[in-house]
Amino acid sequence: MMRKVIIYILLIISAFLITFPVLYAVSASFMTTQEINRGALLPSSISFDNYVRAFTSVPLFHFLMNSFIVAFGVMVAQLIICSLAAYAIVFIPFKGAKVMFFLFVSTLLIPWEAAFLTNYITILDFGWVDTYTGLMVPFFATAFGIFLMRQQFMTLPNELWESAQMEGCTHFRFFLSFAMPLSKPILSALGIFAFLTTWNMYLWPLLLTNNDDVRTVQIGLKMMISAETGTNWNVVMAGVVMVLLPTLILLVLGLNHLKRGLTQGALKG
Amino acid sequence: MTDQVAAKQLMDPASRDKEKRKKARKNFWTAMLFMLPAIAIIGFFLFYPMFKTLYFSFFVVNSRGDTISFAGLSNYLYLWESSTFRTSMKATFLFALYTVPTTILVSLFLAVITNEKVRGIPFFRVAFSSTLGVSVAAGATIWLILLHPSVGVFNNLLAGIGFDRIGWLTSSTWALISVSITTIWMNLGFNFIILLGGLQNISEELYESARVDGAGYWTQLFKITIPLLSPTLFFVSVVTIINSFQSFGQVDILTGGGPNNSTNLIVYSIYREAFESGFFGTASAQAMILFALVLILTIIQFKFVEKKVHYQ
Questions:
Q1: DSSP structural state of residue A34
Q2: For chain B, which residues make up each domain, given as ranges?
Q3: What ipTM goes with this model?
Q4: CATH architecture for segment(s) B74-308
Q5: Minimum distance, in Å, between the CA of residue B7 and any CA atom of chain A
Q6: What pLDDT band is residue A269 in, cutting at 50, 70 and 90?
């Protein structure tokens, strides 16, 4: 009994400390400027004025759409491309499968932040600055995704492929109608993870978007800070809440999927 | 007659061999077709840039990626002598020191208390993993106001209990600590999820038999939980260190590398060298140093830590 009480106390204190910054952001997004300057913790009344201002001071809706397009595109491409590669490694017996897998996984050691300079030059040469293509294509395949899908495909019984092959099923057909549908839980984990990480990306869109056309919402936030700082923290916080909302909802809905997927990737190496 | 039989016996394995080789060749090309998109993307946007960056680091390069002249090792020598770069390296290591152990300890603590069987646990699990859904930009913006000198919650709290206000982001003693606190908070969600998954993989029977033997809470924690969790802890520590060396967004939003370069972490330093000063050559040399650091750290961890890791 005593132990339960202690655990609850620890849980509640920790939950308060960890969620405090986000809760404060939500609260501040409803405050007036005076309330923020006074250091209030809760707004005296609820009004959506700050949200209206957030959407008019910068093209916030447009930025949100851009982020959505980019994150969704990367997610779909990663699911397909990583699964295809992992399928070949697991189900198609060919010389060099091990080498290929090793090469893919070894890219986990290459930090993207050490490669972004040259990639920027490449995108510049392609004329892909300020385009969705430039924002998305470099992230269409990741070592993590290939690794995760390989772990998943290895759990599928090989007899399944053997009997399908007897009936004249090609690899592509088997991939589409057996391997993929049987891997739905891991696919959703990878999908959620890809969407989250792309939505949250900062350095790459900062370099690649010189105007509002394809600018993502993360860079939009930076614009808001420089446009509103000093006086209108409440408007900036309304912007922050709009940026957080989609990913927090996705996280709450997909947490169990995500945990299973990430744990599988982490532990079964 | 006997010759014919012998010939047939010889022929058969040969044609079977041929058949096999044909199938192997077909498999090889099918596999390549399946892997082609992944090879193209990863080759072009990860392998190729590493070699190109290495190449750039020996040249004077302008901001359009044109090599102006061969520079030999002078980019590296320049960095060796640059006090700005030395400050940046020092900040990068201090930042790793501040963030990595704390993040792991706190998320381990959170995972252990949410692995208990009490009511309401799903709610706490969502709360503790929530920072995984917080982007660098949004997280840093929230902390920018929390740490604000006059309206920030932290300084209001300090003033309320009679202390002096602190220039969290403007004093060179505090700025790196403030960026570290922000980073630790942002990384908790990911580490918590992984560690919780690791904890749940430990079989319940082990605890039951330990309880039969009369082992208390702490004995179970240090004799069962921590040793069996060590592969996960190992993974988490590798990822967290690598992440800390790649931090960028929080610096850009919170401090812009200042004051006095005290938060000029290596990726930010690369960014400034390339996109503010326009020196892609020296920026590439810095990127190679970052690459080498990540590589060496990962190898060291695999060599020394993995030996002590306990696999189930």
A1: H
A2: 1-47, 74-308
A3: 0.89
A4: Orthogonal Bundle (1.10)
A5: 31
A6: very low
